[in-house]
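If your schedule permits, I should be very grateful for your opinion on a structural question. The matter concerns a single protein, recorded as an amino acid sequence and a row of backbone structure tokens. Could you please explain, in whatever detail you think fit, how the structure tokens follow from the sequence? I set the record out below, with my sincere thanks for your time.

——
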Amino acid sequence: MQQSGTSWSSILPVVIFALVMVMRFRKVGRPRPFRAWAMWTVPVIYSLVVVMLFVFNPPSLIGWGLFFGGLALGAALGWQRGKMMHLARDPATGKLQVSQSRAAMFLILGIFAIRYLARQTMGGDFGNPHSAKLHLITDAMMGFALGLISLQRIELALRAKNLPAIPVTPPLP
């Protein structure tokens, strides 16, 4: 069903993304527990997905170049995003807490805006699974996402490791 030349299939992802970002912006600045063990789950799972996809559908030589280029760019932005996040110890409990900064959220918004604009300007038949442009963009974006996710978490883990412990005094009886 089309209205005014725009289909719901092209608008729906933007609407869902906007709703998710509104919910995330409401939580900006609120500390949440930092769980070091959970830092590695998403990068490991995503790495396994990328390996599996590349085993069954290996990239072309250009695709490998775009993957590693995206990986490098994602790593640089992930490191920067990790530096933008606030990491501190709760004075009452001594436990680590992390809170997302507005700058980190705007970085993510910018990344998605660039991705959306690149997809719109590159054209191509994105409904066709054999589209060469789609495969190349996918290779680059998979590398970018892997670099962003991994290096953000490595940066946070290194900062958490170097934060001094706060001595917690037990409550007086």
Observations:
- The first strand starts at residue 2 and ends at 3.
- The longest helix spans residues 132-162.
- The chain has five helices and five strands.
- Strands lie at 2-3, 6-7, 32-33, 86-89, 96-99.
